[in-house]
Amino acid sequence: MRSIGEMARDSGLSVSALRFYDGAGVFGPARVDPQTGYRWYAQEQLADARLIARLRRVGMPLADISRVLTADPAQARRTLDGHLRRLEDGLSDARRELSTVRTLLDQRENPMNPTRLTVPAPELAAALDAVRFAASTEAALAGVLLELEPDALRLVATDRYRLAVSQAPATGLTGPTASAIAPTAFVDELRALLDGDGDTELVIDGDRLTATTAAGRRVTGERIDQDYPDYRRMLRLEPTHQLPVDTAALRRTLGSGATRSMVRSQDGTACEVSVLTVTPDGSLGIADEDTEGPRIGVNREFLLEALAAGGRDQLVLELGGPVAPLAIRFPDRQDTFSLLMPTALS
């Protein structure tokens, strides 16, 4: 048997870490002396302790570590793969943020270097329609985030209860990659001009935003000088159910189905909540008090708006549980979707 000090020395875990993992139910000693309370570890536990030390060095959460230790080999490997994907996503986010910082530093040195991007008008109109419904009325978020990249324009809108993301193909980027929060007034005026074909040029020049259509009509505005929420961390969902839905049929079901009248705790706003469930045959349904299985509360008005913004006859709903965001996706596009935060059911 090994004392806790010996196990700490040989495994790479500290004594306090071993005590913590014992208290958390992840990794306990083989025996605890009933008189002294000393922890004693078996020789065969050393391999698991060293495994825990390695997993903690790469930042794996405790729940996943416990799963690796107790699951069958196939499930353990899936857990490792999932954590590796999260690490790679985090590295991509870090690179993106550092790239943005470099761009901001470049703009300090070259303040007169605007960013220009050309976007086909029909694709820009569709992208605006897909996100506009989620824009907030709060001053800091009352707009649509525009991210100008070499081959795409990404648009994001959120009011903290829902999030919508879309993308339009683009060409002709000049200047550094750039992003700006376009006020909703600018967005709405621009959308009203996109009634035909041709290209639209977007320009971010310091605090100034300009959009010019193929017909020469122009919209100008000032960017909102705020940091936008880190929306990318919301995008790494692992849904438990992916359900193809007929949009019109779901709208009818929501319109006729039972709802709960609730008040949002965050701001005191009253709303009607539909309680969604997955039926035994794997389809989406409206739950009642006697329904067994998953029960996910969602603001009915928000869900109806998201379905309308999709503009498709068929969509895919992704459910991850009562506290995970509900995703509404296009079946043929991974770059356009919306997320709705669930409503807690009391």
UniProtKB/TrEMBL annotation:
Pfam families named among the record's database cross-references: DNA_pol3_beta_2, MerR_1
A GO biological-process term: regulation of DNA-templated transcription
Gene Ontology cellular component annotations, sorted alphabetically: cytoplasm; DNA polymerase III complex
Database matches in SUPFAM superfamilies: DNA clamp, Putative DNA-binding domain
GO MF term list: 3'-5' exonuclease activity; DNA binding; DNA-directed DNA polymerase activity
HTH merR-type domain residues: 1-71
Location within or outside the cell: Cytoplasm
Chief location bin: cytoplasm
Protein name per UniProt: MerR-like DNA binding protein
UniProt organism field: Kitasatospora atroaurantiaca
Phylogenetic lineage: Bacteria, Bacillati, Actinomycetota, Actinomycetes, Kitasatosporales
